[in-house]
Each structure stands twice: as structure tokens, then as C-alpha cells.
């Protein structure tokens, strides 16, 4: 089975390859093609993968290319993890938004909208190439903003595009751990949009363990989300929000922390990863050890500004492990390729799951997966406070999709102005003006 990784020079690719190395069953991935526009990054990651494969007799063969058509032709699965504009683009997104006093995070608020406007034309082109050269391939999307990108690619490839994210996985794992449950044996009642969802139940053998969590202050405040949001707010909601909802519930505090910081998350990663790839150009650099050291630092500083805003200090050691998106991707591929039924939280078309959204809206929800793809599970309706956020943000996403398709600057301004974390037409106009001046990838807006 052939897997193509778009964004194959990306820093997190070794996580995916490591998961593949642990799969020895019949029907496993035997060949991995890494595609990236940057040959230097490709070479660096290929060195890491080569060391990972040492001593593994059936390790998937790795090839690299900078030619998109060559990469996708004949693929069985395509894993999309590209970053249009690179980390320099992300750093600029953050800087421009913060200058206007609004959030510039990678997927949330103004920064996420700018990133989406740059990315959607590119992924739509990629989807058309996959349709032409690998029409039977399944696309696993990890490219951010994941919900918007999955919806855009789905307009070309239908339900053969499935979005994944590690945030719900990490949240479910943390809650299961504090309740003494095995994360592999629990049913997680989770629903929303990508980076905008809530864990509403955690069941073992049909029994919901979440009420016990809300009754115990020590347990409720012992894990990442309990520290970020505070136990009183979690009890008020009656659910555990995805960590990205901190940007909505504590927006002023988050913006203040970002503006006070020496540098934003994007600027930090830009410097850190530039150092990693520069070091990898030296022939005597130990690839795997260098990558692992850089990864550990990256994970330890994740959402540092939010933890500062909440006054909760550094991440707990047990939360430093990867969120597990690579295992989600592997489980998804296994379920489809081998018809091994699995239950995973995925980004898929709504169909009739949430009555407040149309059938084609991409949502994040538990799904049963088999050879026919991902099938979203029916869930209880959202409470009104969640309906408000979900429908508001989905409306904004649709305006971004429309702007990317039409090239309308006015529609882009509308998207920014309608976002609950921008809330000003005047600010929206300035943001679109500044982003289009900064990014060549937005020159299509007229």
C-alpha cells in the first residue's frame, strides 16, 4: 500500500513514520512518498526517517519528490500536512492581528482566517490533481485550518477526504487518565467544529464517568483543561471544552498575554525550526537525537501564552507526549484498507448529525470507520451557548470559502468582520488590507 505525505519535509512527519514502523500486519503501508516544495527540508526529514528505520526489516521504503503529480500518482492514501506560507506566514499572521488588538492564532480568529485564505486555493488545486491521478485514493487531512480545508477538498473529492486532529484525542486521554479509565476502552461524547468542540461524556460499559469528575475539585483541577479554564467555569458549562476554546472564553486575557510576550508562538517556532533544519545540513549531526530534542522543547512550550494568561505555569510531564494524530491516521488507514471497524473522532460532513448545520458542513464528531469510509454517529443536540459559537464560526468559514473561490475582497472583509473575535468592520477592513499587502498568496483577492 502506498502513502503520500504532502508537506513531507514537515517537522512532525517522523511521528507518522514511527507509527507506520510499528505496523507489521498484512496490508500495511510499504512505500511512503514525501512531497515538499523545499528540497532541503525533504532531505533533513528523510535522514531522520532513515535512522528510524534502522533495524526494522520491513520498514516502508521512502522516496522524496518536489513534483506534486509524481507524488500523488497511484497513491492509496494521501496525508495532507502542508503549511502555505510557512512559519514565516504564521508569524506574520499573528503580528498583524495583534497590532490591531485581536487574536492572531494559527487557526482561531484573524490569524486562522488569513491562513485559510492563503491555503484554500492551494488545497483545492491539490484535490483536483488527486482526482485526476489517484481517483481511488483516500485523503487524510491534517492541514490547518482543518475544518475549512477538509470542507474545501471535499467539494472536489467528496467523502474520500477525512480530517483528523489530535486535540480531541489528547483531551479524551487526559480525562480518562484522571478518572482511572483506559483511554482505549472509553466512549467519548465529543462534538463541535475543529478546534471548537466540547467533551460532554466519557463512558465505560455504558456508564458515564464525567459526573464524578465534576464532583471532585482535586480531579477536575488536576489536568490541562482544568487548569486552563478553572473548575468553576467547567462546572458552569457541564462539559470539558477543547483547549482552543480558551481563546473564546478568555479572549482578552489571551490577547494581553500574546501582546506582552517577547515573541509569538509562530515566531518562536520559526526560529526553533530554522535552527533544526540548519543543524541538519551538517553531515555529522545525529538526525534522530536532534529531532527528538527539538520535539521535546516544542511540546513543552505548547499554548504557553494561554497557560500564562490562566496563571497555571508549565505543562505537567504527563501532558508532554504527542497528542496522537499519527495513531489516529494509522487507525483510520487500517480501518479503511482492511475493513477493520474503528471508532475515531474525525472531521467529516455533518449529514444529519447537528440539525443547526446543513448536510455539507464539516464537523468534528465520533465516527464509525470501515472500508466504506467514516460514518458520523448521532449525538445529543448542542446547548444554546454552543450552538451560538458553532453556527457563528461555521458562517465565517463559509464566507472564507466563498472568498477563496470568488477572489472577492469584500467577501473576505465580511468573513473577518463576522468573526466573534474580531467584531469590527473597520478592523476587518484594515486586517484584510494588511494581510494582502504582506502575503503574496493573497494577491488573488480583488
Walk me through this protein's architecture:
β12 and β13 form a beta hairpin. The longest helix is centred in the first third of the chain and has 25 residues, at 109-133. This protein is 51% helix and 15% strand. It has a 6-stranded parallel β-sheet, sandwiched between helices. α4 packs antiparallel against α14 (265-280), α4 (86-99) packs antiparallel against α20 (425-438) and α19 crosses α20. The chain is globular, with a radius of gyration of 21 Å. By secondary structure, the chain is an alpha/beta fold. The termini are far apart.
**Rounded to an integer, what's the Rg over CA atoms?**
21 Å
The tally of beta strands, per DSSP, is 13
Oligomer: single chain
**General shape:** globular
Tell me the layout of helices and strands.
Blueprint: E1 2-6, H1 13-21, E2 31-35, H2 39-53, E3 61-65, H3 68-72, E4 77-80, H4 86-99, H5 109-133, E5 138-141, H6 146-157, E6 161-163, H7 167-178, E7 187-193, E8 196-204, E9 207-208, H8 210-214, H9 217-220, H10 224-229, H11 231-237, E10 240-241, H12 246-249, H13 251-260, H14 265-280, H15 287-300, H16 304-310, H17 325-338, E11 342-349, E12 362-370, E13 373-376, H18 384-406, H19 409-418, H20 425-438
Parallel strand pairs: 1-2, 1-4, 2-3, 4-5, 5-6
Antiparallel strand pairs: 7-8, 8-9, 8-10, 11-12, 12-13
Helix pairs in contact: 1-2, 1-17, 4-5, 4-14, 4-20, 5-6, 5-18, 13-16, 14-15, 18-19, 19-20
